Amino acid sequence: MDRVSAAFYPVGMSDTDGRRWHDMGGRDAGPVPQDEHDFALWEKRVDALMMLCSDKGFFTVDGLRRVLEDMGEEAFETMTYYERWMAAVNQNLIEQGVYSLEELGTKMEEIAARGDSYGEAQDV
Question: Phi and psi (nearest 5°) for 9?
Fold first, then answer.
């Protein structure tokens, strides 16, 4: 693709079909599992957090979608649906100044010091 044409294609967009890496609509992907499954507690919490933060105006669906689409193909292939949503919620909250990366890192260190389970929790 020449330099002029490249200016018209956003990063990650194919120059042959106008799709970005995450746009798989209409492509062969094999069978889609139709079985129901129960959501893990942490997945339900991610959904609740997303709804709460959205209702409070910390981000919009468009903001979440932007982050999800900008994650890149590797994240899409290696992270679960709710792991990607949690990363998108986190990025949007950081961008809105709800907390900083430093504050998040400090809190994560405090929580890690508690141990791997509630039974191992220590007063920090």
Answer: -110, 115
Q: For 41-88, what is each residue's pLDDT tens digit?
A: 999 999 999 999 999 999 898 999 899 988 888 888 899 989 999 999
CA distance 77 to 104: 25
Taken in order 50, 27, 10, 79, is the CA torsion positive or negative? positive
Q: Are 100 and 63 in contact (CB under 8 A)?
A: no
- Angle at which helix 101-113 crosses helix 81-95, to 10 degrees, equals 130
| Residue whose C-alpha is closest to residue 79's, from 120, 119, 43 | 43
Domains of the chain in sequence order: 38-124 (1.10.472.20)
81-100, pLDDT tens digit by residue? 899 999 999 999 999 999 99
Instruction: Give the three-state DSSP class for 49.
Output: helix
